[in-house]
Amino acid sequence: MNTKRSGLAAIGLVGLVLCGGCSRQTLESAQEDTERNVEAVQREAKRAERKARPQLRKLDLGVRVTAALRANQKLPRTIRVDADESGVYLRGKVQTQAQKELAGRIARDTLAEDKTVTNDLKVEEDGEA
Q1: How far apart are CA 68 and CA 50, in angstroms?
Q2: Are strands 80-84 and 87-91 parallel, antiparallel or unpaired?
Q3: What is the pLDDT of residues 52-93, one digit of tens each?
């Protein structure tokens, strides 16, 4: 709050310098307008943050699981991770059932207990694509 007051005081001082011949009522009105504008900008910033928060959480889930999967040398790079609010979906192709299970286990270990892992990985049959 002190920062806000300091900022408003500075704006008011600039206003005094620029409006040397302005009436007190004009200066007060300009200060009130500035305060309202600051409050409106703060409200809009909070609204934008609330709107972006779910997308950021989804992005965080996907990035953390992708990084954990990529860090494991036994897994192919063909695994795609899609995320939503509830958890992640593993998609793509792996060469063995063991790789599919490993990817699922890594994803589950990476996420919080309340998040789900849907393992939709397909195991290639006899090296077929």
Answers
A1: 28
A2: antiparallel
A3: 888 889 999 999 999 999 999 999 999 999 999 899 999 999
| Contact partners, residue 38, CB within 8 Å, separation at least 6 | 4, 7, 8
Evaluate whether 110 touches 65 at the Cβ level (below 8 Å).
yes
Q: Please list, in sequence order, all residues whose beta carbon lies within 8 angstroms of the beta carbon of residue 61, skipping any fewer than 6 positions away.
A: 83, 87, 88, 111, 115
pLDDT of residue 101: 97
Q: CA quadruple 109, 121, 92, 114: dihedral positive or negative?
A: negative
Dihedral-angle region of residue 116 (phi above 0 means left; psi in -120 to 50 means alpha; beta otherwise): beta
- Sign of torsion, CA 21 4 41 39? negative
Residue 1 has pLDDT above 80, yes or no: no
List 83's β-bridge partners, or say none.
Answer: 88
